[in-house]
Write the structure tokens for this entry.
Amino acid sequence: MRTAFVLFVRRLACVTVFLITTAPALAGDMPGPRRGLVRLSEPTSWFLSIAHAQSDRELRFEDSITPIEFNRMIASTGVDLLSFLTLQVEAGWVSADAGMVEGEGGFEWGVGATVALWEYVIEETSAIPRRQTLRIETDVIHRARQSTLDEAFEWTQFTVSPVVRYTHERRAEVSWNHRMPSGVSAYAGFQHADWDITYGTREGEGNRDFAVRLGADLRIASGWVTRLDAILYNGSDRRFTIGMGYYF
């Protein structure tokens, strides 16, 4: 467990440092009207959210494939350290069922970061006001979970999810606050997931590593966000998430 955690810290540090160092350079190559991607003078904000996720995953133990259903309730919080960097932590409860075997729930935790690599402002009008942007960003997150089937069931997951996000914002005030606008934000991309699984004395991994990722943030009022997320590996191997968050 300690070795896996040390390996995770090294991987997360390497990926985060690479993304942070390349993001400002990439952003500077694509200027947009009035504001660029890197805005270090803006105040730091943070968020709280709660979500429910249901997933049907195929796990591989040597030559055998085992379908398992996961149900999660997860709370998360995070902070926008920079306009292109968000750090977050999460904790919650997860249960796993394998066919006729119903498992008991267990604790789950995770840490991660979202890094914007590039942003282009399509439209920004303060008179209406209205703003449209196109953005490339990457989520990097590590999760550790445990549950109980007929034997102890533990697993860790390291995911990297690059997506292209389109955002259309609109609000009544003349002055912008890009963290808490009303509007809609939709994204599409892919996800790579590295699973390490321990089931009793057996060790396994996810049957598929790559998935298509689709989602949307519905900003129904200033600060409030409803989030929908779908990760599609293949056929019945998938995960759906719905949640609600608030930005302070």
